[in-house]
Design goal:
Blueprint lengths: L8 H8 L9 H11 L1 H6 L1 E5 L2 E6 L8 E6 L23 E3 L7 H16 L8 E6 L8 H11 L6 E10 L10 E8 L1 E10 L3 E2 L8 H14 L8 H13 L2 H7 L6 H8 L3 H5 L4 E8 L6 E2 L2 E10 L5 H12 L5 E8 L12 H11 L4 E7 L5 H4 L6 E8 L2 H5 L7 E3 H18 L1
Parallel strand pairs: 3-5, 3-6, 6-15, 7-14
Antiparallel strand pairs: 1-2, 2-5, 4-16, 6-7, 8-12, 8-13, 9-11, 10-12
Helix pairs in contact: 1-4, 4-15, 7-8, 12-15
């Protein structure tokens, strides 16, 4: 494994300091990447597909290539409320603070640091390695899809692909005594759903019995109480079996019988926010709008719900359930955009074994398990060219750190980020 110097943190800090919320900011980020990683941009065949970076590291042999993915863009980060400004790249001796440290510049810069270090040592992969750094993942854009389309047209069929997703986390269930590396073998589907109420407005001093905003609020409340069908897809069952084999006490005994005690297991999982989201489709209203003035009745009241669709469900059935839950024909329910869950990748064989072995070399104390990723990633597009797509960022994250994703005070520990760089280098050196 090549040595990763702690000074590599300077690269992460510098690239976090380049905002990438908007498309017009991305050229500066790509220029900074070129400046920071001259060997990579000299040795690899780098091109841009729209704003997405696509790079081929030529291999010495003819085997099926590997595909490593990350994304350049970040979600908006209003400055208010942060301990350190979101684009300061502040270092306090323990963490690097800033938007993108976890999602997803930590992975992107870590991959680049690993490639740069391997090139410095004269390493050349046995087979081609492709890097794909999407530019519009956070807005559900087409950048990665277009780049995957280019690979498909060229006949590139990777043995496996790796994108963001899981991480190394504290024990997710009681009775497990060691950290767990959760590797996504699938991801839930996604839909943004609009709830709209339109009716005659007027002065707020003479409101009707049910103004548009009140009708919308009632619909939002009903959606919040909606219960989508619970299910335990195969990857979740396998994850629970592996956790059960580790868990001490009564909970471990229950998890070991997950196939025959599913109702009880579901009740256990329903106790926590993260574990409850593993069980079913979720819907959270994230945006609301009403009248333009405080003394005017809204002529249109709108809410947008972000829906994550469970494996085994689809978009039409989910929309139908939302309409039934709201139960009001005056509330228009429409799909803004969305897609169903991804296919499920094998949790055995090439790709999975490579990732699992690299985790074991970095952290022999960690248990590796498959899971269904609750969020979305560009990795779903890679299923077009390979049936083995894995979602894992090699960083240890506490629950508090995970809650900072897409929120204030996003940050990553310096030591775990450097370990992640070593993990990427080891994966490339041993598996490619």
């Amino acid at each position: 494994m090549p040595r990763i110097d702690p000074s590599a943190l300077d690269h992460l800090v510098a690239l976090v300091r380049v905002p990438t919320e908007a498309p017009e900011q991305l050229p500066a980020f790509r220029a900074a990447l070129r400046e920071r990683f001259p060997r990579l941009f000299a040795a690899l065949e780098v091109e841009e597909v729209g704003g997405t970076i696509l790079a081929r590291w030529p291999g010495r042999g003819e085997g099926a290539p590997a595909l490593l993915m990350a994304h350049q863009d970040v979600v908006p980060a209003p400055a208010e409320g942060w301990t350190h400004p979101p684009y300061s790249g502040h270092r306090d001796g323990t963490h690097v603070w800033g938007r993108g440290t976890l999602d997803d510049k930590g992975s992107l810069v870590g991959i680049c640091v690993a490639v740069e270090a391997l090139l410095a040592e004269g390493f050349a992969p046995e087979r081609d390695v492709w890097l794909l750094f999407g530019h519009d993942e956070e807005t559900m854009g087409s950048g990665a899809a277009d780049a995957i389309g280019v690979l498909a047209e060229r006949g590139v069929r990777p043995a496996w692909a790796l994108d963001e997703g899981g991480a190394i986390v504290e024990p997710p269930v009681a009775g497990v005594t060691r950290d767990v590396a959760v590797v996504g073998v699938a991801e839930k589907g996604f839909a943004n759903v609009r709830l709209r109420v339109a009716q005659v407005g007027g002065h707020a001093s003479t409101p009707p019995r049910l103004p548009a905003t009140s009708r919308l609020a009632r619909a939002v409340g009903r959606l919040g109480r909606a219960r989508f069908p619970r299910s335990l897809p195969a990857p979740t069952i396998r994850m629970l079996e592996l956790l059960g084999a580790e868990a001490r006490g009564p909970q471990g005994a229950v998890l070991r019988r997950v196939r025959t005690a599913r109702p009880l297991v579901e009740r256990i999982l329903a106790r926590g926010d993260e574990t409850r989201a593993m069980l079913a489709t979720t819907a959270a209203v994230t945006q609301l709008s009403g009248a333009a003035a405080p003394n005017a009745l809204a002529e249109e009241a709108v809410a947008v719900a972000n829906v994550r669709i469970a494996v085994g469900e689809d978009v039409p059935a989910t929309l139908a359930r939302i309409r039934r839950a709201i139960g009001d024909p005056a509330v228009e329910v429409s799909l803004l955009h969305g897609h169903g869950p991804s296919p499920v990748s094998p949790s055995a064989g090439v790709g999975w074994t490579d990732v699992e072995a690299a985790i074991g070399r970095l952290r022999p104390d960690v248990l590796t398990v498959p899971y269904v990723m609750l969020g979305g990633s560009d990795g779903r597009h890679a299923h077009r060219i390979t049936d083995r797509v894995y979602r894992f960022a090699p960083f240890a994250m506490t629950r508090e750190e995970r809650l900072a994703l897409h929120a204030r005070d996003e940050r990553i520990r310096e030591d775990t980020w450097l370990d992640g760089c070593r993990w990427y280098a080891d994966l490339l050196e041993r598996s490619c």
